[in-house]
Recover the amino acids of this structure.
């Protein structure tokens, strides 16, 4: 009986949509960047899903670097990144979602090919991975704290 219950709860977790994860992600998250400044992401719900904004802060000046969204289409859920300097957005297909983790991928994107968000209390861990033009693996990790 216990094995059946465990299997059933694993099955339920594999059917999770981004809704419960994104509700926890709502708000502003900031942390140190790999350079001299600070990066922030702000997320809010919309009628189509969630809208986000990536920002860079340096010397007290805030500048938007990209528009983000999580939305459901006929072919599934997508994380959409549209850097300000890019002509077109990049779509990353949802690969995994739990209450505390969201992972998306686009193997054809230059970098990153995989983005993973993991929530732990008031901390958001962001893991980016992929390959550079020489097919060398690259990984970047950030942690952002929820702004209150």
């Amino acid at each position: 009986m216990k094995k059946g219950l465990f299997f059933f709860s694993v099955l339920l977790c594999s059917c999770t949509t981004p809704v419960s994860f994104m509700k926890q992600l709502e708000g502003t998250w900031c942390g140190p960047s790999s350079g001299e400044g600070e990066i922030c992401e702000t997320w809010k719900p919309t009628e189509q899903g969630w809208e986000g904004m990536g920002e860079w802060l340096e010397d007290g000046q805030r500048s938007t670097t990209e528009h983000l969204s999580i939305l459901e289409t006929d072919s599934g859920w997508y994380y959409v990144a549209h850097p300000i300097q890019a002509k077109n957005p990049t779509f990353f297909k949802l690969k995994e979602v739990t209450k505390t983790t969201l992972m998306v991928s686009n193997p054809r994107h230059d970098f990153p090919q995989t983005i993973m968000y993991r929530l732990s209390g008031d901390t958001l861990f962001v893991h980016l991975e992929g390959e550079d033009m020489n097919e060398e693996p690259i990984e970047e990790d950030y942690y952002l704290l929820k702004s209150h």
User: Anything to note?
Assistant: The longest helix spans residues 2-14.
